[in-house]
Specification:
- Helices cover 39% and strands 21% of the residues.
- The chain is built from eleven helices and ten strands.
- The radius of gyration is 37 Å and the shape is elongated.
- The protein folds into two domains: 2-86; 105-341, 2-Layer Sandwich (BirA Bifunctional Protein, domain 2), CATH 3.30.930.10.
- The mean pLDDT is 87.
- The strands form two sheets. Strands 1, 4, 5, 6, 7, 8, 9 and 10 form an eight-stranded mixed β-sheet that branches. The chain has a two-stranded antiparallel ribbon with strand order 2-3.
- By secondary structure, the chain is of the alpha+beta class.
Length: 357
């Protein structure tokens, strides 16, 4: 036992780290450690020998355990001291900014619009960005000779020579989501469809990829009056005004009949746009009553149901509300621009405390 004591106590005292200390513990007092094996030999001894060897072995075992615990504590203290020396903090440095990132205006406006229409009873529907020619055009009553189906306006997916399958396109609007939703859920239905859309155009007010939000409501007694009220409620809530007058101008879209352009009352004073007042009108989007052929393509009986649909540009809404003069910086990935126009991530749009709080 004296040999074991003189062997392990110096080794424990000289252990360089906790891994070496654990190895020594296993060698000395582990299941198959030298001291543990000596303890098992007590059963082979006479009672007189056990009375002498037993207390001595227990005392040795306790001494080794105490040495191990003391060394472990000393190693922990040394590690903490070293860490404190290396990881110092200069308290005179300026504090870190309270926020590191911002929400893109497109994401912010999408959330704002979704919150408003959710309050009006609309749910959010999504669909694929690569659509078949049928969902993007045919189901929406857009004839084959329509200019929108030309390659000057629409991005068609590549097809190998001899491939006679129907073509696929990058969707030019989110209206295909309306068809898919009608097919899946039937009527009555109230949905909005926000998302990316693609058209072959690029200038200050157009980009090849932009964002739209379209709405659809189908039931047995829906009229243009419901559509106008819905748009007025949306516009007032979105621009955070008491009221904005909405005007319909007769137009033509293949997927609605009758069709109407949406205008918001506004004024231009010294080059500054003010919504909700004045004698001018600002074009905001398109709308109308859903064409019976579109309802039929969605699996809904047009003899029983009717509905309205509308489409608004999310990018355009963001430009109007937050005074952004050019569409192209939305896609430039300029952190300086985003820092200026961005929004705090935790300020989620809420009608109760304000959309753009």
């Amino acid at each position: 036992m004296d040999d074991l004591r003189s062997k392990y106590l110096p080794l424990i005292a000289e252990a360089a780290d906790e891994a070496a200390l654990e190895d020594l513990r296993v060698q000395a007092v582990g299941k198959k450690g030298e001291i543990s094996l000596k303890m098992r030999e007590l059963g082979k001894m006479t009672p007189e020998e056990r009375q002498v060897a037993g207390p001595a072995l227990n005392a040795l075992k306790d001494e080794v355990h105490s040495a191990l615990a003391a060394k472990k504590a000393a190693l922990a203290d040394a590690a903490l001291d070293a860490r404190l020396r290396e990881e110092w903090l200069d308290v005179t440095l300026p504090a870190r900014p309270s926020r590191q990132g911002t929400v893109h205006p497109i994401s912010q406006v999408t959330d704002e619009v979704s919150a408003i229409f959710a309050n009006l009873g609309f749910s959010v529907a999504e669909g694929p960005q690569i659509e078949s020619d049928w969902y993007n055009f045919d189901a929406l009553n857009i004839p084959g000779h329509h200019p929108a189906r030309g390659e000057m306006d629409t991005f068609y997916m590549h097809r190998d020579e001899g491939d006679n399958r129907p073509p696929h396109v990058l969707r030019t609007h989110t209206s295909p989501v309306q068809i898919r939703s009608m097919q899946e859920h039937g009527a009555p239905i109230r949905i909005i469809c926000p998302g990316r859309v693609y058209r072959s155009d690029y200038d200050q007010t157009h980009t090849p990829m932009f964002h739209q939000i379209e709405g659809l409501a189908v039931d047995k007694d829906i009229s243009m009056a419901n559509l106008k009220w819905c748009l007025e409620e949306f516009a007032a809530a979105f621009f955070e005004l008491d009221h904005i007058e909405v005007r319909f101008r007769a137009s033509h879209f293949p997927f609605t009949e009758p069709s109407a352009e949406i205008d918001f009352r506004c004024s231009w004073v010294d080059g500054q746009l003010k919504l909700g007042e004045g004698d001018d009108w600002l074009e905001a989007g398109g709308s109308g009553m859903v064409h019976p052929k579109v309802l039929a393509a969605g699996g809904i009986d047009p003899e029983v149901y009717q509905g309205f649909a509308f489409g608004l540009g999310i990018d355009r809404l963001a430009m109007l509300k937050y005074g952004i003069p050019d569409l192209r910086p939305f896609f430039d990935s300029d952190l300086r621009w985003l820092k200026h126009y961005g929004f705090v991530p935790l300020d989620r749009p809420d009608l109760t405390r304000g959309l753009s709080a």
